Target: Substrate-binding domain-containing protein
Amino acid sequence: MKLKEFAKQLGLSPTTVSRALSGYPEVSEVTRARVVQEAVRLGYRPNVNAVRLKTGRVGAIGVVMGRAGEFHFAEFMAGMAERLITEDTDILVIPMANPESDAEMQLYRRLAESQRVDAMIVHSPRPNDQRIALLHELGMPFLVHGRSDIDVPHPWLDIDNEGAVRRATSHLIDLGHTRIAMINGRQGATYALHRDIGYRSALQSHGIEVDPQLIVNGNFTDELGFRFARSFLEQPKRPTAFVAGSMMTALGIYRAARSLGLQIGSDVSVIAHDDVFPYLTADNMVPSLSATRSSMRAAGTRCADLVLQILAGRSPLEIHELWPVELILRESTGPVRALQA
Amino acid sequence: MKLKEFAKQLGLSPTTVSRALSGYPEVSEVTRARVVQEAVRLGYRPNVNAVRLKTGRVGAIGVVMGRAGEFHFAEFMAGMAERLITEDTDILVIPMANPESDAEMQLYRRLAESQRVDAMIVHSPRPNDQRIALLHELGMPFLVHGRSDIDVPHPWLDIDNEGAVRRATSHLIDLGHTRIAMINGRQGATYALHRDIGYRSALQSHGIEVDPQLIVNGNFTDELGFRFARSFLEQPKRPTAFVAGSMMTALGIYRAARSLGLQIGSDVSVIAHDDVFPYLTADNMVPSLSATRSSMRAAGTRCADLVLQILAGRSPLEIHELWPVELILRESTGPVRALQA
DNA sequence: TCCGTCAACCAAATCGATTTCAATTTGGTT
DNA sequence: AACCAAATTGAAATCGATTTGGTTGACGGA
Model:
């Protein structure tokens, strides 16, 4: 059913019908009601592509999906979905080319120029992230999930990674730990940098020297958590505590400790970051995992919300949200038991 | 840069330019080469929305995302993304309303009628899944990931859930287990049903009576795995083995067993289904987890591929792919140690 | 009565491509 | 040289909406 045909059935012009459905004021309430009602009855829906061509609006928010297929990502998207379900907007997932490469930039450029999305969300930004410069330059509305130091103004929502890790580390220090290993995320992303800063500043403000040997970076997998933790724990001057980037990493650390006969919470303390997953919870680990905690899903919801606001006209420049991160202490942290040799 | 303008710069008509870029044969190779080259140089790209309006094709495959934000989903999508990265097609994620409700059907109807996607992928179908009937009726191309018993022809890709669980269960029986608990997925989906059938048929063909008390259904979470396993293991006539629906469930079972001082692999055997995640692998669990194994990511890639084939004209009716599932034995399975009272 | 205002509606232009149908050029035959 | 088929190229219609710039008629005030 096309507009023309539908309008004819109603004895109205396409103009009036279009206005009635889009909520323009120049149409009488009586007519509008009739149009709306008949539209439902006859099943008329404007052709999306025609609307898009004419208005230039697409009704979709773009998200570039990393190849790693990170588990965080699904949570974030679920959050976005929750917010967008009432809106007439959907999520366009774009497979990502290799990061840092020309291909990645070209992908963003193509996307911005191809009018396939109204706005984009940039994930895991780097300190000097050219994607942000590009989108800004191209005039594509966007929101950064995370932060960047690039000197281009950009709206962002981020969690307080630095503060979270500082508190976590400080807490471990308060418990008497001095050799604290840091299993951070992949080098490059700002969040990893911020966590690194938080870790170092906590040590320094307590007068503890930073041992670069105790800092490692890598993907958030059980596998890497295990390997790093294992090699740390096999050292003669082994760490007595860990700060870890994710729940999966924590699983690996638990496993490594167990494999060496060490007790989590007494021989070794662990604090990890918990993005809050429905299927795996820090409270349920054994022993329960102390964690810095911030919901990825909630972030997704809020990001979608902010993007909608930007599209509705809110100035992006004023959007900077820094979310605090809870530190929840459970059983995986405890005082140092004995001084290591 | 619009087509008209671009064509003028080249001294050609829009018609020829359009043809040259779309690869029509009626344009000389010399001209085509020039057009293509200049398009790159001047940065001309056809306006997607105009193309869509005119051709009726959208360049997007729709996937309805459950609210649970399951971890499988991200893997599946990552797989799709891998296949689609070379194509000019993207993934449209649609937030899902409550399943089984009117809202869900309306969502599918709206989607099919709104021309926002060229095709859809239906997940976790139920035995009598009205979504399939609806899409078929509406003429929207689609592919079912999983299977349905509905008497509407539909293309599908599924893994051999029944066979996988039958083999897993049979193997446990061969090891001497007779009380085998089954922690299945949410009731309703066909895959859960198939697994149930596989489980029962294995028992029956070995002359073991099915104890309905040993069969439970629920989401794939560590939490539920723990609770179910715990309550099973506290029974006087406790099971000596588990067949579980997911890695998360297995984590929960491990935890439950440990909390009761039981050894996985000797006191209690476990086989779970492994969808193959980059961040959590069966091999790395302690003890390593025996699993029926099939890659969700590979399924996503293949599904995307099949959908593209359907869109390219392949008859959907002939598309039925049943993927075998590997059974990989590791340390979590072993012979029954002692007969329980 | 006449005019201005306002509410309600409409005709036609427009968005930017694709594609049908027709025109032109090229090259080969006789 | 004349003709025809094949190879190229174009003009204009089309996809289905939105929106600009009207028109119409009712009503109130002068």
